[in-house]
């Protein structure tokens, strides 16, 4: 979309906070990280917040910083963590205190538990095209209201503009504010967040992302913001980094090895993994790019009965059967995925609307492990009903907001581990 598009409009007022976004701020769901940018002056780092129907106003203080990228200098990027929130409660909050004040609200999740319903939205590879705007609008208008977005990477695509034009990080932040200011987006890092550009002197990977988007990685024992875990309602969510080292004895490997034993499926029965580069992909685009991570980690996913893995990267949509390929080694020649009811369903949802367009070329014939695939822009909803059942629906941008393009009832791998493959005629 052109820079003068209304979705990129700077909010009115002197040094008004912009690009407001929130994410979970701890492991348990009782904290929120509030982030925003003031362009002209630093302004206040304070967040005022209060419960709905309460006159008691509370304060939290954050920090701000700026960064430079080539010829670009950022505004003042503020991050403030609000802690000790009550579960299942509506809070209002205000930023820009003492100057141009802007007010928003959010809902905290229910206390982690096996049978509390909770609905997640899923978006990947969003960008800032006209299709991106349709995707976000469709998500907002979906009758199955998502309460938190699981975002599987590739934010602004600023690196596709000349010299990684970081002004496009600002426009993207203003574009998504209508959602990110009101419900948490759980961030996954993609390849377009690398911003590694030695040809213009930028040799620190992920610089814009690390300054603009914080994650609660320390609360889960992670050493970097790119991989971490959270509990949210009935779900335990593990976020992995496809573009950070993941081989044996790397920090990410060591962290994940210690993470799975922490998951209590009695408290959080649904185990969800987010990553950017898919492990199973039958498109020609980015084919096999996730293979080395799959070889490293897939046995853990099967052993621990992960329910579903969401990825992006490929600009299309695909859902797998429950399959694994853990029997393969270099000499045995067993290299075809097989049905495995302890394995997750792998869903690629890199179809948010990026300017690079759709991935339209697929490998033929369609592999047996691929249950459904289509090159259309869209978003998805994963609606957990209780410890045994979750409803999943993928929505195309060209359909009505209530129309499902692909659906599946998920049966939990621990509490209801029967075959949940849809019937052939469904």
UniProtKB/TrEMBL annotation:
Gene Ontology molecular-function annotations: acid phosphatase activity; metal ion binding
Domain Purple acid phosphatase C-terminal: start-end pairs: 343-403
Key words of the record: Glycoprotein, Hydrolase, Iron, Metal-binding, Signal, Zinc
Domain Calcineurin-like phosphoesterase residue range list: 119-317
EC main group: hydrolase
Record-listed E.C. numbers: 3.1.3.2
InterPro entries the UniProt entry points to: Calcineurin-like_PHP, Metallo-depent_PP-like, MPP_PAP, PAPs-like, PAPs_C, PAPs_N, Purple_acid_Pase-like_N
An annotated GO BP: cellular response to phosphate starvation
Keyword Glycoprotein: yes
Cofactor(s) needed for function: Fe cation; Zn(2+)
Reactions catalysed, as given in the entry: a phosphate monoester + H2O = an alcohol + phosphate
CDD domains to which the protein is assigned, alphabetical: MPP_PAPs
Gene3D superfamilies: 3.60.21.10, Purple acid phosphatase-like, N-terminal (2.60.40.380)
Hydrolase as UniProt keyword: yes
Domain spans labelled Purple acid phosphatase N-terminal: 17-106
Superkingdom field: Eukaryota
A Pfam entry, by short name: Metallophos_C
GO CC terms in record: plant-type cell wall
PANTHER family the record matches: ACID PHOSPHATASE RELATED (PTHR22953), PURPLE ACID PHOSPHATASE (PTHR22953:SF146)
Similarity comment text for this entry: Belongs to the metallophosphoesterase superfamily. Purple acid phosphatase family.
UniProt-recorded name of the protein: Purple acid phosphatase
Classification lineage: Eukaryota, Viridiplantae, Streptophyta, Embryophyta, Tracheophyta
